[in-house]
Amino acid sequence: DGGITQSPKYLFRKEGQNVTLSCEQNLNHDAMYWYRQDPGQGLRLIYYSQIVNDFQKGDIAEGYSVSREKKESFPLTVTSAQKNPTAFYLCAIQAADNQPQHFGDGTRLSIL
Amino acid sequence: GDSVTQMEGPVTLSEEAFLTINCTYTATGYPSLFWYVQYPGEGLQLLLKATKADDKGSNKGFEATYRKETTSFHLEKGSVQVSDSAVYFCALSAATGNQFYFGTGTSLTVIP
Questions:
Q1: How far away is chain A from the Cα of B24, in angstroms, using its nearest Cα?
Q2: What is the helix (H) or strand (E) element at residue B3, kind and residue range?
Q3: Could you give the 3-state DSSP secondary structure of residue B33?
């Protein structure tokens, strides 16, 4: 979707390494979300943030960390504690309650 | 709690066939309902939405009607094309708060 950018498109992680996925938006939306999608599966919520300097755990937060220092940015760090990080990661934004979420193009993370 | 249930796939249709993908929901109050489409290697794109009972969302020949009495939001298209091959997700935005719920996705393949 226009206005939300995820980078990089592909990312490789070595064992024991932390990696950070970027999500940037220029639509001035308050709410931002991170999802994980495994092959042939639906979406699982990792973390979300409704306001700067505040975020909440989703259903599968273990092994991940986030920050929300600026309204337009919500980076996700996949830590070495996440033992099975290979997946497709999607960032989404939402303007307000009851509004649709809009997604970035995703980052595919693989283990070297 | 709120939830979304959609028919499992995969679904395979011939070009120009009629498509129905069933979606039912459980929610308190009056949620907003959405259909998203995901093409291989991409993020989710909003296909259509409906925000109140009896609303009909439509886009690119796809339609879905918000049925409060049957708690359903089935996706339909009268004549599918090969380019419609994708995964389709039904989703719900809760009436209060900004909780968002996705179905598990239905894979559609259209053959010439």
A1: 16
A2: strand B3-6
A3: strand
DSSP secondary structure of B35-101 = EEEE-TTS-EEEEEEE-STT-EEEETTEEEE-BTTTTB--EEESS--GGG-EEEEEEEE-SSS--EE
Q: Judge whether residue A109 has pLDDT over 80.
A: yes
| Best residue of A1, A90, A101, A108 to probe chain B, by most B CBs closer than 10 Å | A101
Residue B83 φ/ψ region, left for φ over 0, alpha for ψ in the -120 to 50 degree band, beta for the rest: alpha
CA A63 – CA A81 distance, rounded (Å)? 5
**Residues B4-27 as b or e (16 or more Cβ within 10 Å = b):** bebbebebebeeeeebebbbbbeb
What's phi and psi for A71, nearest 5 deg? -60, -35
Round to whole Å and give the CA distance between A17 and B87: 32
Rounded Cα distance between B73 and B3, Å, is 13
Quote the CA–CA distance of B26 and B1 in Å, as a whole number.
Answer: 7
Q: Which residues of B touch A (CB under 8 A)?
A: 31-32, 34, 36, 41-46, 49, 51, 89, 91, 93-98, 100, 102-105, 107
Q: pLDDT tens-digit profile of A47-93?
A: 999 999 999 999 999 999 999 999 999 999 999 888 899 999 999 99
Q: Which residues of A touch B95 (CB under 8 A)?
A: 98
